[in-house]
C-alpha cells in the first residue's frame, strides 16, 4: 500500500514536495501519477490468452511471462514483488 508524506530533509524539517512510498521505494508525485495512469489502462487483446476449462467453458487469462514483463516495464527489474494472499480451489 502506498502513502503520501511530506519530504523531510536531513534535519527533520518538512518541505512542500510530497513523496510517495511503495514498499521500500520512494517515488516523486509525478512518478506516482504516471504509475497510476499506467495501471488504469486496459490491456489489449494481444495480452489475453484463452483455453478450454471444465464443462466446455472458455476461460481467459494473462500468461505469467506477460505479467512479469509488464511489471518490469513499469517498476524496473527488481522494483516490484508479489505474493499469494489467498487461494481458493
Automatic annotation (TrEMBL):
Spell out the residue ranges making up region: Disordered. 1-20
Keyword vocabulary terms for this entry: DNA damage, DNA recombination, DNA repair
Q: Which domain of life is it from?
A: Eukaryota
Coiled coil location: none
Indicate, by first and last residue, each region the UniProt record lists as having compositional bias (Polar residues). Answer: 11-20
Q: Does the keyword NAD apply?
A: no
Could you give one GO CC term from the UniProt record? nucleus
One GO term of the biological process aspect? mitotic recombination
- Keyword Cytoplasm: yes or no? no
Q: Which family does it belong to?
A: Belongs to the RAD52 family.
What is the recorded name of this protein? DNA repair protein RAD52 homolog
Native organism: Notechis scutatus
The primary gene name is LOC113431344
Amino acid at each position: 500500500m502506498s502513502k503520501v508524506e511530506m519530504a523531510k530533509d536531513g534535519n527533520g524539517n518538512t518541505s512542500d514536495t510530497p513523496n510517495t512510498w511503495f514498499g521500500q521505494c520512494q517515488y516523486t508525485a509525478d512518478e506516482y501519477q504516471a504509475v497510476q495512469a499506467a495501471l488504469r489502462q486496459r490491456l489489449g487483446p494481444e495480452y489475453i490468452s484463452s483455453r478450454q476449462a471444465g464443462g466446455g467453458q472458455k476461460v481467459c487469462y494473462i500468461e505469467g511471462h506477460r505479467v512479469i514483463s509488464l511489471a518490469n516495464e513499469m517498476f524496473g527489474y527488481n522494483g516490484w514483488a508479489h505474493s499469494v494472499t489467498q487461494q481458493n480451489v
